[in-house]
Design goal:
By secondary structure, the protein is of the alpha+beta class. The chain is built from 9 helices and 6 strands; from the N terminus they run ααααααααβββββαβ. 47% of the residues lie in helices and 14% in strands. Strand 4 and strand 5 (179-184) form a beta hairpin. Helix 1 packs antiparallel against helix 2 and helix 1 packs across helix 3. This is Transposase.
Length: 215
């Protein structure tokens, strides 16, 4: 939870056109905190002047509602870092960045929400049409492959009732960002090969390149 002075200060700087780097350095906060404050500012619908007229405690509660009045917060992606990685990639792929994000935050935003937040980030920081990727993605060229980080306990043994962890195998095509996922009991080579075969069968096509990530 951030204090009133930080909330108001972040909004003032961002509305004045000050970038994320200066804003987060000024208040010693991260990119995700700046994004969270600005997202809630837009969602609440108050003007900056209206917020300044409110008691500080009310502003803090509006931006950070008490735990019993709100759902558990999802970890916001660090879109500045994600954008830098995208610009450095030969073939930028946002779905692959989402897979990396979900490895660290299994309960984080789903793909469609992730896309929307990234578009909002681009619009707010670079202008709607000012950012272009360095290389055009070619349909069917690459399929990205990865094992999702945390292993959720999803499999129940019908005989014993024991709950087992599973390993989530995920792939995405670079151009369409279409995702295929499957669960396995391990991350060994036979499971990997089976996952790739099933993914190709699901897509109904074979890409030019298969791009595994530390598999």
């Amino acid at each position: 939870m951030q204090k009133y002075s930080t909330i108001i200060g972040v909004i003032e700087l961002r509305q004045s056109g000050i970038g994320y780097r200066t804003t987060k350095k000024r208040y010693n906060i991260g990119n995700s905190t700046v994004t969270l404050i600005m997202n809630r500012f837009h969602e609440l619908g108050f003007s900056l002047e209206e917020l300044k007229a409110m008691p500080p405690k009310k502003v803090e509660e509006a931006f950070y509602p008490p735990e019993n009045l709100r759902r558990t917060e999802k970890e916001l992606p660090d879109f500045f870092q994600i954008h830098q990685r995208m610009m450095a990639m030969e073939t930028p792929d946002l779905a692959f960045q989402w897979m990396e994000y979900k490895k660290e935050h299994p309960n984080g935003y789903q793909l469609s929400q992730f896309y929307k937040l990234y578009r909002d980030f681009l619009r707010e920081n670079f202008g709607q049409d000012s950012v272009s990727m360095p290389v055009e993605r070619i349909p069917g060229e690459r399929m990205y492959i990865d094992w999702v980080g945390n292993q959720p306990e999803l499999l129940t043994d019908p005989a014993t009732g024991e709950i087992h962890k599973v390993h989530v195998f995920a792939t995405t095509f670079g151009f369409s960002s279409r995702v295929y996922a499957e669960v396995f009991l391990d991350e060994r080579l036979p499971s990997f090969i089976t996952g790739v075969a099933h993914a190709l069968e699901y897509y109904g096509a074979v890409p030019k390149y298969l791009v595994p990530d530390n598999c």
